[in-house]
Design brief:
Layout lengths: L2 H10 L4 H7 L13 H5 L3 H8 L6 H13 L17 H7 L2 H4 L1 H26 L13 E4 L2 E4 H24 L5 E5 L6 H15 L3 E5 L1
Parallel strand pairs: 3-4
Antiparallel strand pairs: 1-2
């Protein structure tokens, strides 16, 4: 049975990738050195094929699974799981890198930077202010800019509106992100010499594509 036949059989059986993953489980009865023939015979075609390739099963159990597959006139080729994802080859062919690095990313990056600049400017202004009293909405001051004088209420209102606007822009640009990639990175643990450059590489090279999970 070819890989295409295996996929067709999976659809006819009503199975999907979740059922296939379930069929890949280790069968406790097949870990024994002398498993019963009934434990092998009652497995489905998919589960039987997975059992024949499962290294957690005993040699005798895998051999019995191979014999049962041949008795059912099924191939020994392991079936493949196709897990649905957000990104399809047609998306890459149509949009290319614009799928990840389009205007949406520019909006997210620059709104985040602008928010950081505003907050940093507020902290610097407070630190350099000659008035050491806590800066609150009751604090009265004036700012002269371009020949105009702005009251403290106007300054607080403008800063608050700017911060809320930038947060809203960043949130909606992130929520409306079309198809972020999901990147799984497997690495060695307790390797401090690799951790810092690896984290730097993740931030610069992988995170712009989408969500990165590091294990």
């Amino acid at each position: 049975m070819s890989g295409r036949d295996q996929a067709d059989t999976s659809r006819r059986d009503g199975g999907d990738w979740r059922m296939q993953l379930r069929d890949m489980r280790t069968v406790a009865a097949l870990r024994a050195q002398m498993p019963s023939q009934d434990a092998v015979a009652r497995l489905s075609d998919r589960a039987l094929r997975a059992a024949a390739h499962n290294p957690d099963h005993s040699d005798f159990a895998r051999a019995a699974a191979v014999g049962e597959l041949r008795a059912r006139n099924l191939s020994l080729d392991p079936w493949r799981i196709v897990v649905p994802g957000f990104i399809k080859p047609a998306d890459i062919a149509r949009h290319g890198e614009r799928l990840f690095f389009g205007w949406g990313r520019a909006v997210r990056v620059w709104s985040g930077r602008a928010l950081f600049v505003i907050l940093a400017g507020m902290f610097i202004a407070v630190a350099l202010s000659p008035n050491r009293e806590p800066l609150t909405t009751e604090t009265r001051f004036w700012i002269d800019f371009a020949g105009m004088r702005f009251d403290s209420d106007d300054v607080f209102a403008a800063l608050g509106l700017s911060i809320l606007s930038l947060i809203g822009i960043w949130f909606f640009a992130s929520a409306l992100r079309r198809k972020p990639a999901r990147v799984l990175l497997l690495r060695k643990f307790n390797q401090r010499a690799l951790s810092v450059p690896l984290e730097r590489m993740i931030a610069r090279e992988l995170r712009p594509y989408g969500h990165v999970a590091s294990l």
